[in-house]
Amino acid sequence: MTMRDAARTVAALLLVAPLVAGCGMFGKPLTHQELAAKLEPHYVVLKPQGAEPFPAVMLFHMGGAIDVGSENWQAMLGWGDELTNRGYLVLVVDSMTPRGLDGDDLTGPDGLWGNRRAADVVVALDHLRGRGDVDASRVGALGWSHGGWTLLDALAYNPPARLPGSIRSAPAAGLDGLRAVVALYPHCSFPAEFRKGWTAKVPVLMVLAEEDRVASPTACRDIAKAQAGIGFPVVVDTLAGVGHAFDYPWSDADAHPGFRHDAEATKRAKEMVAEFLAWHLRPNP
Q1: How far is 157 from 150, CA to CA, in rounded Å?
Q2: Second-level CATH architecture of 3-280
Q3: Are 212 and 189 in contact (CB under 8 A)?
Q4: Is there a smaller number of Cβ atoms within 10 Å at the N or the C end of the chain?
Q5: Using one digit for the tens of pLDDT, what is the confidence trace for 21-78?
């Protein structure tokens, strides 16, 4: 999605919000079991070497295609390799293919917004709780842009206390076992549910891009400051001189104007994320 497309999307969201705030274009809400049946055949699991059970990290992609060879896919594999090398089982959650969506469907005005996609978080977490090779008490999640919005909205809804509009039930265990959330350059403005704050006290790391022209780093810092002010564990690090999706392997600059890969910032982000996860997903005493 280009920067011009992003601006048009935000304008369109303001116009159509009342239409899609409820069930919207996606019809009747599903039970969490129905949603799980849709998502599970499309999970990609990357396993580390070593003795089971493993701590686990869920990955939630940004907008755009997640086809093999796409920037999304390359980024998922790059981060996935990094995490498996550190001993984590990685679950890549594809929110698009199970719903028959393409890249525009995720970010457009009648698309799968983060406040509906948040249901995928609680369902994927429940899947990990059912795996014998996962330590279900040590799970983290990492989301990029739309994926970061999705994760933070899951913390805002905190199922089963409140439910995203796309589901009508949630696992009784809710977000139990989720011990760390990393949001890279998330969308922190309207219509994100978490812009009003979140209620699940899961440690959060926001990695922001100072030159971001797609997702406002100022809005994210304001929300994080408010949450920290009422005792929620949240850390923010803003990387200077880089823009949105700086860690993505943009191979064709002409096709993605406004986006540029920055190797040094990517290295720094991976170091921050590794340190954050190592601390919060450490073994229970």
Answers
A1: 11
A2: 3-Layer(aba) Sandwich (3.40)
A3: no
A4: C
A5: 333 445 689 999 999 999 999 999 999 999 999 999 999 999 876 776 777 888 888 9
